[in-house]
Design brief:
Length: 424
Amino acid sequence: MNTTSTPTQAALRIDGKRLWDSLMELGQIGGTAKGGVCRLALTDLDRQGRDLVTSWARAEGMSVVVDQIGNIFMRRDGRNNALPPVMTGSHIDTQPTGGKFDGNYGVLAGIEVIRTLNQHNIQTEAPIEVAVWTNEEGSRFVPVMMGSGVFCGAFTLEHAYNATDVDGKKVRDELERIGYIGEQTCGDHPIGAYYEAHIEQGPVLENADTVIGVVPAVLGLSWYDCTVTGFESHAGPTPMEIRKDALQVSTYIMQEVVAIANRYPPYGRGTVGQVQVMPNSRNVIPGQVKFSVDLRNVNDETLNRMHEDLLATIEATRQKTGLKIELERVSYFPPCPFHPDCVDNVRDAAEALGYKTMDVVSGAGHDAIYAARLAPAGMIFVPCKDGVSHNEIEDAQPDHLEAGCNVLLQAMLASAGVVDGGRA
């Protein structure tokens, strides 16, 4: 490890070029022709990515532990190792047409924090850890955020082990095949505080010309499957007034989904993303339509009101049309407010560093949601070009990534504490 003179904590800065070079090197594993990455969970490419990241950790003197679902915890000791570690991290699995930064940035920002502390011989009071969570994306195996979900007890290890991909391959078998099925019991790993640095995956920061997003919360979501059943008949001979057109009724409900979201600004979200029309023939009045509904908001009270509005819409439409309408809630993630101390540490660090900040509530799910069930947690957002993510053209500016990592460093030190004099 290269060491230099010890700066004051406030003057400590990460090496932006070193962080960028690490992101580019990891991005070569599963790199695509359009400059993105396809590195699905528990594939040979995922193993190569894990091997590279853990090799960097070991080179910095970190110990490496893997739990039963394949989560990786890379630890730098503190002066008092009886204290629970201050943790950061994210994931390195990607979408089939993913980018270099989603998840990967959070992991490598953590590695860069460790490199910086080692370079300047800084000793923390509490240990610091960097986590790589298994199958965050859910592209190959469901549920999403699998590793952190099992870790916090949101679902069982056996449920995760038995999940299969499109080829019928099971999570447990694939973990064993790539050599990342560990011995540590999931959740048998304390966390003192958790921070996650991430690209925003939306356009808010870029549109506001702002470098750092302070994340006070993650939107809760409520997912539904709706089925409207009418009656198929010929499009020509059947008069309009006697039709039982499942699609026309469905489109009314779809518009109401959007209207419900607009009634609860600024964080109301309402989306219909999947539609199946049967029989899907040009000259047949649709007899059945199945579609998804996605409602989101920032607190339980408002999200529940949106839920009740949807139920009322369904019942009123059923009464008015006489058609059979079935609505099933298929998934629910409660809103996740982050801990005020962690949020303040992020905000204070960004302001002390002179970065322009704004609060950004996350509309996407992250491993930090599950970590927040076990410990104080917070997130740091940086802009991504045009707000694009889950796409091969996903991009971010090196200076923004550097800024986010500097904020991460200072926020983690605020939680972990620096030993008087700083030097290890």
